């Protein structure tokens, strides 16, 4: 018996039954295990509320050229993740605007939240870029981006 089809069917069923949109501040909502596994293997599994549904759709539609990397997934997994991301995408005020190039780090809310960070700080070897949330947000993997848990590496 092949477990992959059963796993994919289960992911699709879970994604289809989730209908509520996440509030843009709700970054601690439990992440779909398949999302954590597939997306979190290369970078922080960003909370879906960080982007609007249209941005997530475009990102999933271009996984073969995902910010310079081929992050392709099989069509069943892509569909399951797409349904889940759509159901949990940002729907509040800050998520209404689609950021340039669908980059979280270029969203207006992100830029406002990080306006005190200098260009030199972003380039520090331990940080490397604004997309590396876990470099400063010590609990980013758990969806906690609280200012109380920030540690900016030197």
The pLDDT mean sits at 84
Tell me about the largest β-sheet.
Answer: none
Supply the helix-strand structural class. Answer: mainly alpha
Helix/strand order, N-terminal first: HHHHHH
Count of DSSP H/I helices = 6
Number of domains: 1
Distance between the termini: 51 Å
Given as residue ranges, the uncertain stretches (5+ residues, pLDDT < 50) are: 1-25
Radius of gyration: 16 Å
- Helix amount, in percent? 25-40%
How much beta, percentage-wise? Answer: under 5%
- How many beta-strand elements? 0
Question: Shape from CA axes?
Answer: globular
List its traits.
single chain, 154 residues, mainly alpha, 36% helix, 0% strand, disordered N terminus
Give a written overview of the molecule.
The protein is mainly α and 154 residues long. It has one domain. The protein is 36% helix and 0% strand. It contains six helices and no strands. The longest helix is centred in the N-terminal third of the chain and has 15 residues, at 3-17.
Can you summarize this structure?
The protein is mainly alpha-helical and 154 residues long. The chain has six helices and no strands.
Write the layout of secondary structure elements.
Layout: H1 3-17, H2 33-39, H3 53-61, H4 75-88, H5 108-113, H6 119-122
């Amino acid at each position: 018996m092949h477990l992959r089809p059963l796993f994919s069917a289960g992911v699709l069923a879970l994604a289809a039954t989730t209908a509520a949109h996440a509030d843009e501040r709700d970054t601690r909502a439990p992440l779909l295990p398949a999302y954590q596994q597939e997306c979190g293997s290369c970078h922080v599994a960003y909370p879906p509320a960080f982007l609007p549904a249209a941005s997530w759709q475009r990102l999933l539609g271009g996984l073969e050229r995902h910010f310079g990397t081929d992050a392709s997934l099989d069509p069943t997994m892509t569909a399951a993740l797409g349904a889940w991301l759509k159901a949990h995408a940002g729907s509040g005020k800050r998520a209404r605007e689609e950021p340039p190039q669908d980059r979280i780090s270029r969203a207006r809310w992100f830029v406002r939240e990080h306006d005190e960070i200098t260009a030199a700080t972003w380039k520090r070897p331990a940080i490397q870029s604004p997309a590396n949330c876990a470099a400063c947000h010590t609990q980013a993997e758990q969806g906690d981006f609280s200012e109380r848990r920030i540690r900016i590496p030197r």
